Give the backbone structure.
Amino acid sequence: MDKASSFEINTTHFNKKLVIATQGSAFKNAITSNIINHYKNDSIYIKVIDIDGLHDIKPKKFDAIVILHTWESWQPPQSVKLFLNRTRLYYNKIIVFTTSGSGNSKMEDIDAVTGESNLNNTKKYSDIIINKLRPLLK
């Protein structure tokens, strides 16, 4: 996986805040863009980071956290695993989307959306994630 570029949309002064932690791939970039395009005109601060930056994220400061990652060698990336292990109290605001070859691999005890990295399905998965974000960012 490539590294994802970090950037911010809107001002940190907005009351609602969303962080998207992702990996660099055409599929994940498309989903990230769809989420941003859906919310960029709302009063929501959006921060996009690579999953390796999760160690700096304090869930208390965000209304919603989206994690887009690939299942690698029968497990999640270490940064995702460590973040989710330390943030159990905040699972109600964390949305995980795990991609894998089979399309159904995910961490145990995590309510994750799963699927294959197929560019034809970016709208489908983007819509699922946006629907899960709706109550968190209203």
Notes: The first strand starts at residue 7 and ends at 9.
